[in-house]
């Protein structure tokens, strides 16, 4: 097993990785920006190195500063968490070139899946269903308009290099496509340094379902069930649950088989997620993207399958077999995750500030993965995620009951937060029924 691990991230995911590392007897090393010096992940690490000021480009995305920290602390491996450098193929390759272990998929797999058009084409060739769309970037507005006419409206205009719900615009007709194309292209160039745009069919009523995969050290790819991720604002997830209330055993078998084919097509190793769109009317699903990293919502899979995905990641990176029998995977119960964000519960706009009160709920079936404690300051420099409130139950009804109690018991004051939204959602008839889609938040607001 790896003996020393540098965690190239911050907040709750850094704290989460450090917790598993210490349980396994691995020396855990944190890197942090100047404004994060007093956060729990820094305090709980065995060693911590400041890598720069608040600006992520000068700290958490500062490749040379992070590699220098690994060298000075004698780190054997680097875990990138999610966000920041986690899907940066050049960074993954450089880590290996420096003689360090990269806890994630290979650089080639990251590259293959990082471009949405290339990923779509690879998946189609592997027999994974893809939505109607362009097989090469729409080079200019005329090409985009031609694609929209051929595919049929409405369409989604997407940044080919985008991710995390960013760089997307729905176009109901040609006029909206013309406006959306310029917006997405400019955004993509600014955010990703790549203005490539793809056009694909947009489904007005759709569910977002993803499959957790794990590429093992022996070359096999296994699927660890699906997660429902349809409660979203601005195409970004707020709630995830497993199993999906929309997926029958027959549909699940198709989902998992397609996800395994997707992983095998790129020789996938370590943890990843195959994201899909499900048309509830036809039960057809289409490949959306592959996230070549650990997902924010990985705890729901951990709780349903009774495994520690970070431990499995470390074992794969070290060339070790998994702790579980891949041929005897048996999910149990139901898990729901709520993303507690520092944002107002109506418009979902960021609301940083000093945390005056922070009391996490406890009890049977309740888990909180948090990045903060009372007295910490939530700054505007990073994602608004404060914590993940995860509940489990023997079935979905019990999980919902525990979620309501846990939300009511979570005492949080200081920064704005979305706990009131979750209290509303958990009593919403559409959500409680399980028959909801990605438009549910818009209908509530």
TrEMBL record:
Entry keyword RNA-binding = no
- Highest rank taxon of the organism: Bacteria
Query: ATP-grasp domain spans which residues?
Result: 120-318
Enzyme Commission identifier(s): 6.3.4.14
- Residue ranges of domain Biotin carboxylation in the record: 1-445
Q: Which Pfam families does the UniProt record give?
A: Biotin_carb_C, Biotin_carb_N, CPSase_L_D2
Respond yes or no to whether keyword Protein biosynthesis is given for this record.
no
* Any one Gene Ontology molecular-function term assigned to this protein's record: ATP binding
Q: Which PROSITE patterns match?
A: ATP_GRASP, BC, CPSASE_1, CPSASE_2
Q: Which keywords describe this protein according to UniProt? A: ATP-binding, Biotin, Ligase, Nucleotide-binding
**What protein name applies here?**
biotin carboxylase
UniProt lineage: Bacteria, Bacillati, Actinomycetota, Actinomycetes, Micromonosporales
